[in-house]
Amino acid sequence: MNKALKFPMNYFPEEVIEHIFDFIASHRDRNSISLVSKSWHKIERYSRHQVFIGNCYAISPERLIRRFPCLRSLTLKGKPHFADFNLVPHEWGGFLHPWIDALSKARVGLEELRLKRMVVSDESLELLSRSFVSFKSLVLVSCDGFTTDGLASIAANCRNLRELDLQENEIDDHRGQWLNCFPDSCTTLVSLNFACLKGEINLSALERLVARSTNLKSLKVNRAVPLDGLTRLMSCAPQLVDLGVGCYENEAEPESFASLMAAIKKCTLLRSLSGFSEVASVCLTAFYPICENLTSLNLSYAAEIQGNHLIEFVQFCKRLQLLWILDSIGDKGLEVVASSCKELQELRVFPSDPHDEEDNNTAVTEVGLVAISAGCPKLHSILYFCKQMTNEALITVAKNCPNFIRFRLCILEPNKPDHITSQSLDEGFGAIVQSCKGLRRLSVSGLLTDKVFLYIGMYAEQLEMLSIAFAGDTDKGMLYVLNGCKKLRKLEIRDSPFGNAALLADVGKYETMRSLWMSSCEVTLGGCKRLARNAPWLNVEIINENENENGRMERNEEDEREKVDRLYLYRTVVGTRKDAPPCVTIL
Amino acid sequence: MAYEEVINELNLKDTELRLGLPGTDEQAEVSCVKSNKRQFHQSNDEHNLKEEYPPPPAKTQIVGWPPVRSNRKNNNKSVSYVKVSMDGAPYLRKIDLKMYKNYHELLKALENMFKFTIGEYSEREGYKGSGFVPTYEDKDGDWMLVGDVPWDMFSSSCQKLRIMKRSEAPAF
């Protein structure tokens, strides 16, 4: 008999199905299995412990908790990406408090909270610290709105805290004693990162904390920890895997330097190094004993370390997989990286002189990029700031590295053409998208016409996030992308001539995407209003910083042709948000 | 399509970022095409810049460009205070070298600060025509005459400034 094989899983008991689901971690896979059947949906709901919410306004806390009552780990993202570059008003939104409030009231057993670009208050942190007995891990990236008082609550009240990771947040430092607030009974810390704090800390409190945290694997201190302080810390934590170093005086005493080096030698498990802001080159040399073990090195804040010292150090880091560095390393330095770091997977080269004030000629060019692509076969992610580029270089890079997942190139001067042929860089980027079939993230720059978007639409089948600045000629450019990139989730555009025709061509497309950002483009208020009317499941936000309450109410028909300064739209199941400030109009 | 023709006629000007409300005509537009390169007024330096692009009145920068987080921008050695001593003056002063773009500006500032005049610089003879000689201590600890090396090299290696009395500085 030729029966089709009936899927037997429907007949398994629930506990078995749940056990099978435990093996499925990715939230996308989880979302998929929840769509299979009602019973699977139900089982999946109750067994889901980790939830990822890419846009905090896409759903409400209440609905989240209703669907996933057994939630333990929550990731939330707030402001759009361009907030990093001051394009989003400070008060735009992304408040944590409603979430903590709801989770607390529902007595959710929250253990882990990861936030990106959210506004966090001390009250929220205090409520968090008191509401969740098993709370273990707090990771805050690019957040703001809180002070060290909030950290004190976390330290004092979270009995089982394992991870406190503060990355690049704006924290008001009250120079208090928040580190003292960790009780003596707290010995569970595995990861502590306060590198972004600007003020003084209680060194002896830190030393005692580190000494009793025998499981501590990751420690990133701020600039207030001096050289001998670091030595003491490393001496009582030789098990460290990940270290972030603070700031030191220009000349280290020979004795303290020797002690530091001795302490470093004992840290045989150290694999990741970062920090070094305001650190003299000589202090980097203290790490020579362990540099061969390093898999991750972030010297992108080390403005004081000159290029030649960077090169000397990096050439011995043969096991490096991740390197973040300043362009002061130069093309020569990148050539050294290419010949030394054969395991390299991710490279970021940041500009040491973003506004071209120093007029130096040692920054990186297309030569460095080509060298890296030729020398590092495992490279899959790159962020590269440079002053110049050529199509030929990009074509070579595309040939050398077909495995790119993330390719972000930022040529510092907008609209800059190929510096040898003076042509646009359409062909270069075209080669990248054609060759890198797995490309998920792309940022383009330099002189670009609609043609580059034709290529992107045609070839970038896996593309999920695209960043465009000062590029394109007509609406066709944006349309190529919207029509071609089926997996597109985030599109952010600034200073490009795309207007209403492109915006309105396929309104349904935005239901398949997380968000669209357009600033200083050609879209008008009228176009945005039309979009909002045709797509009620979208929040269409107009951001205008010069707007006040009166301005909003005075809009009349003539304003329909007014160009919109900043547009941010996103799909949502909970309609218009109620917490928008006056400078944001939701259509 | 007529609409496309209109769009095609847009020139580069329309993609320039305007700092005001959309639709308003700004007098001081930020051009994204012009170079930001400065023009040196005095050529003590060996790196004289081309004078093709007239310097903008103030440092014009495009909002949010390049796309670098602000904590990275501040990280650049953007402030470099050095002590300035003058022979005979009762106390030292401090200046931020990053405030000046060339020797001319620095020397003018020093003259104002200490109320004296520095002579004219020449490569062969140093400073002539006044009783004072500007010197500096470099990264190697050596005392050098201000003005010999290109400005950028000077500003990144200068640790201290000392305005010496000519009588104390026979070599210069």
Task: For this entry, give a set of tags.
heterodimer; A: 587 residues; alpha/beta; 21-stranded mixed sheet; two-stranded parallel sheet; 21 helices; 23 strands; 18% strand; B: 172 residues; alpha+beta; Ubiquitin-like (UB roll); five-stranded mixed sheet; two-stranded antiparallel sheet; 4 helices; 7 strands; elongated; disordered N terminus; Auxin-responsive protein (chain B); transcription cis-regulatory region binding (chain B); nucleus (chain B); AUX/IAA_dom (chain B); repressor (chain B)
Structure report:
The complex is a heterodimer of chains A (587) and B (172). Chain A is of the alpha/beta class and 587 residues long. Chain A has a domain at 500-546 and 557-586. Helices cover 32% and strands 18% of the residues of chain A. Chain A contains 21 helices and 23 strands. Mean pLDDT of chain A is 92; it is low at 548-553. With 172 residues, chain B is an alpha+beta fold. Chain B has a domain at 79-163: Phosphatidylinositol 3-kinase Catalytic Subunit, Chain A, domain 1 (Ubiquitin-like (UB roll)), CATH 3.10.20.90. Chain B contains four helices and seven strands. Chain B has helices spanning 2-8, 70-75, 103-114, 151-157, and strands at 81-86, 93-96, 120-122, 126-128, 132-137, 143-145, 160-165. In chain B, the strands form two sheets. Chain B has a five-stranded mixed β-sheet, with no helix packed on it. Chain B has a two-stranded antiparallel ribbon with strand order 3-4. Chain B is elongated, with a radius of gyration of 22 Å. Residues 3-12 and 23-59 of chain B have low confidence and may be disordered. The interface between A and B is large, with 52 and 41 residues.
